[in-house]
């Protein structure tokens, strides 16, 4: 059986949930409304990780639609992606990095996704002109790395992945190429059962550094299969790093977060970011943790981490840049620009009065709820 055969058992409709959820007609109606707007797709592998006897099971919350997603507060584009788009499917927000939206497809549609505006149903923002994207990157010498994402970059065919790598590894001023993917988490069989994919990554990894940026959010996701997928990547020389999202009801306590990060470093996956969940429409009220609370969780978690585990930054991906959330002191929350869109924000340090309920910063960098 191939990994493609395994995908035939994906859970894709609310009807598929009836046997395990035992929903009332009202609950079912709510979930149908949610899935009509933002589709459900769960690989059978990931679906089987859910403990259905626990309605607060974290895997369930990450994968299964919930009535909370009917709350429309928030914004679809919380990081200003539309203003950084140079052509459909290519964004250039930070000088050194170009971002390619290669697909709107994922093997699983995560309920906290910050690209809900497109993932699973809208292809308007997707790159359909690889040659033009490569030309743009070639002509902008300040770009030293490319992030291929989506959707999920590993949902692309092997031919498409190779075509991207063939073109990008020929650009002299690129130092490395990153793939943004949750495949190691939600469907690792795509990696360890696919010798062709591994061969492609190994071949082009000899020309340029290839880095996989994954997103493990809970220790329960680090299964034997997931570890097998990570090992397959590392065995061919691919670097794997992780960026988690701080999520209410998933990993918003120090023990869970420190266990996740320690387990990642133990298999050679170094934490990269822990992101503040974005105030995305149909996500904000469901998953966002107040920043002040997040600082306390991060601080407590770090007490149980080694130096490698502490190497991540707690940050938010804001329209003006990636803003690191340093901590609290004397009634203030301390922030610093880690990456900036505008030159005047370079390395900028600023403080705001603590608001225990605030979950984001507005355009003027004031705390908002």
Structural write-up:
It contains 14 helices and 14 strands. Strand 7 (239-246), helix 12 and strand 8 form a beta-alpha-beta unit. By secondary structure, it is of the alpha/beta class. The chain starts with a helix and ends with a strand. It has helices at residues 3-6, 18-21, 25-37, 44-47, 58-63, 130-139, 158-168, 183-186, 189-192, 195-205, 224-235, 254-266, 284-287, 291-302; strands at residues 85-87, 90-94, 97-101, 145-149, 176-180, 209-214, 239-246, 270-276, 313-318, 321-329, 332-340, 349-353, 360-361, 367-368. It is globular, with a radius of gyration of 20 Å. The mean pLDDT is 96.
Percent strand equals 15-25%
**Major sheet details:** 12 strands, mixed
Derived structural class: alpha/beta
Cα distance spanning the termini: 49 Å
Helix content: 25-40%
Q: Quote the average pLDDT.
A: 96
Instruction: Give the SSE order as H and E letters.
Output: HHHHHEEEHEHEHHHEHEHEHHEEEEEE
Number of helices: 14
| Counted beta strands | 14
Question: What global shape is seen?
Answer: globular
Low-pLDDT residue intervals, each spanning 5 or more residues:
none
Main β-sheet, spatial strand arrangement: 1-2-3-4-5-6-7-8-9-10-11-12
Integer-rounded radius of gyration: 20 Å
From the structure above, extract its key features:
single chain; 369 residues; alpha/beta; two-stranded antiparallel ribbon; 14 helices; 14 strands
């Amino acid at each position: 059986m191939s990994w493609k055969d395994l995908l035939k058992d994906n859970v894709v409709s609310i009807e598929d949930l009836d046997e395990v959820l035992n929903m009332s007609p009202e609950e079912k109606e709510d979930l149908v409304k949610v899935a009509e707007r933002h589709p459900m797709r769960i690989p059978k592998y990931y679906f089987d990780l859910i403990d259905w006897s626990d309605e607060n099971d974290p895997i369930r919350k990450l994968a299964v639609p919930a009535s909370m997603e009917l709350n429309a507060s928030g914004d679809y584009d919380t990081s200003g992606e539309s203003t950084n788009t140079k052509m459909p499917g290519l964004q250039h927000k930070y000088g050194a990095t170009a971002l390619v939206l290669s697909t709107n497809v994922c093997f699983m549609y995560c309920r906290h996704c910050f690209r809900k505006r497109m993932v699973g149903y809208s292809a308007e923002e997707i790159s359909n002109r690889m040659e033009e994207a490569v030309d743009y990157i070639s002509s902008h010498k300040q770009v030293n790395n490319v992030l291929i994402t989506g959707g999920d970059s590993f949902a692309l065919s092997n031919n498409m992945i190779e075509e991207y790598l063939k073109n990008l590894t020929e650009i002299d001023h690129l130092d490395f190429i990153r793939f943004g993917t949750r495949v190691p988490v939600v469907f690792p069989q795509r990696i360890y059962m696919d010798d062709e994919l591994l061969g492609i990554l190994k071949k082009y990894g000899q020309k340029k550094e290839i880095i996989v940026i994954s997103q493990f959010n809970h220790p329960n996701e680090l299964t034997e299969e997931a570890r097998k997928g990570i090992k397959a990547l590392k065995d061919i020389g691919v670097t794997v790093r992780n960026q988690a999202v701080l999520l209410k009801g998933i990993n918003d306590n120090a023990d869970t977060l420190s266990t996740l990060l320690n387990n990642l470093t133990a298999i050679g996956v170094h934490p990269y970011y822990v992101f503040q969940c974005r105030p995305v429409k149909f996500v904000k009220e469901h998953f966002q943790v107040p920043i002040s609370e997040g600082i306390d969780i991060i601080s407590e978690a770090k007490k149980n981490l080694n130096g490698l585990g502490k190497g991540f930054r707690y940050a938010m991906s804001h329209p003006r840049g990636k803003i690191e959330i340093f901590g609290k002191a004397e009634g203030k929350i301390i922030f610093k620009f880690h990456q900036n869109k505008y030159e005047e924000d370079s390395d900028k340090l600023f403080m705001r009065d603590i608001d225990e309920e605030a979950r984001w910063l507005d355009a003027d960098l004031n705390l908002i709820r």
